[in-house]
Amino acid sequence: MTRQENATADFNDGAFQRAFLLADYAECRRLLNSGKGGDRQTLRAATVAWREQRYLDMIGALSSFTPASEKDALERDVLLGAALGSTKEYETARMRLDRVLENSKSDKELRSDALFYKGLVAWMQFEHRESETLASELLKGNPNDRARAHILLSWVAIRRHDVQRQVIELTAALDVLDQAKEPDEHYRAKALMTLALLCRELPLPEQTQRVREIYEKMKWATGTTLAQFQTTRFLGWVEALQGNEVGAFGLFRTAMSLAPSDAWRVLCLTDRAYLARNTGEQSFATDLLHDAHGLAKRVAWQDTADEERSALIVLAELFADVDPAVSQQYLAQFRSLTASVLPGLSYGTDPRVRAFANYSSGMALMRFGERAEAVHLLSEAWEIFHAFGYGWREALCAFALHDATSEVDWLNKARHAIAPWPRSWIARDIATAGEKRDRSVLSTAQGRVLELLLEGKSNAAIAKALGRSPYTVRNHISQLFKNFRVTNRTQLAGLFRGSPSARKKKS
């Protein structure tokens, strides 16, 4: 028996491979710990580390690893190339991967891995044509290889702002995985999660139904927890945009239970608070917002690298009406964060991320009275969302710009952009925008309260002027907010910009 065979006698590599394809990394680790050590286990442990994005652990373990065979040496170089590329050591990564491609012509599995990781490195370096060439080679392989190729091509597509092509490639990845005898569930989850994100942003009824069906049938494992969490969140927003707020809140609660960290839990709380605020559940929204604020204080945001960071700008937007000082703190904190250290995550460079940040920042600044800067940020966000075809976000920006500028053209753009989501809260708000100034529905007392409120008077001053109790005035103001579909005095005043009361306040 050779040294390698003796060292791995107790390691069940077949069982490991089955668990690995199921993305059951807890079982993979159990199997790794049950053996006596050896080359095969070292390499298998590195593949798990790759999937879990523990790149520095991989580099440390593999750099000191001396393989017993040429095949193991090539597999080590594949994994080192993948890890080095993911830590921006691009040239060293390419050298390792090229060595594998030159010496593994008879080993299809090693060659496919090297092609994929080199394609990924090329994508990180914005060498998109090279990524496409390498993906075309992968398309000649087995279903799991073809799925990886389509996913790589989807990343190239989104870098070119071709969202429709990304949808096509992700759908193709799911199609070929359906054909596989032993599909790699890691890549199925990755494709499903990204397609669900696009279903959140675009009117894609067929793809949305496909995502729902796969989501329900999927056997989620330890390695797909983040994908399960994100897919659940995205489907929650799909329900909200279709007017099913009850279903949306249910999915958001499920997502909260799946959230893999406090940072993600903060984002879940802001999801629910944002939807509650926009559907009139003000008390519930306030409770959720303060829960999110308390939890956010415990998060080391500088260590986050993905979409969970967006919780900070949503908190800034939501707190602008509640506590402007806290809102400004969140804006400053978000702006202080550096780009992601992981080039595989485009969070730091993707223009869509800038649009998300600009929208929330612009909404917060508008409530602070910094209208010129708010209009600038919202206009840039609108342009980006318009370019990507992100219609409902485009509608939100246009509607906010209408509020800021009173330009009818922005309202028309908002109405056009939201048309595919007619049952959403956004569509309801936009549809009634032209009716919100109609005071005929108000009682005489409510009308007088409105006039005084638009003059900038406090609740106490209004109560004194009308000879009413502060409690009665507060009830009238709550009814005004409900009638005109707003949540605060600033929004109400914005509806009547240019009215006699508003001019009186200005003078």
What is the count of structural domains?
4
The total count of strands amounts to: 0
Return the string of H and E elements.
HHHHHHHHHHHHHHHHHHHHHHHHHHHHH
Distance between the termini: 95 Å
Model regions low in confidence, pLDDT < 50 over at least 5 residues = 1-9, 340-347, 498-507
General shape: elongated
Report the CATH architecture of the largest domain.
Answer: Alpha Horseshoe
Number of helices: 29
The CATH class of the largest domain is identified as: Mainly Alpha
Structural class: mainly alpha
Radius of gyration: 27 Å
Strand content: under 5%
Specify the biggest β-sheet: none
Residue-averaged pLDDT? 88
The third-level CATH topology of the largest domain is: Serine Threonine Protein Phosphatase 5, Tetratricopeptide repeat
What does this protein look like?
The protein is mainly alpha-helical and 507 residues long. 73% of the residues lie in helices and 0% in strands. It has four domains: 138 residues, Serine Threonine Protein Phosphatase 5, Tetratricopeptide repeat, CATH 1.25.40; 102 residues, no CATH class; 86 residues, Serine Threonine Protein Phosphatase 5, Tetratricopeptide repeat (Alpha Horseshoe), CATH 1.25.40; 63 residues, Arc Repressor Mutant, subunit A (Orthogonal Bundle). Helix 10 runs parallel beside helix 12 and helix 15 runs antiparallel to helix 16. The longest helix has 18 residues. It is elongated and about 90 Å long. The N terminus and C terminus are likely disordered.
